[in-house]
Amino acid sequence: MRAPETGEHTDEILTEIGLDWERIVELKVAGAVL
């Protein structure tokens, strides 16, 4: 089993806590998440 890459599960986690895709993109553009 390998370790996850940096940011590999970011989208999954953020959608699980209720963020929509628009907000996730905003956070990525701002450099707040990978």
UniProtKB/TrEMBL annotation:
InterPro entries: CoA-Trfase_III_dom_1_sf. It comes from freshwater metagenome. This is Unannotated protein.
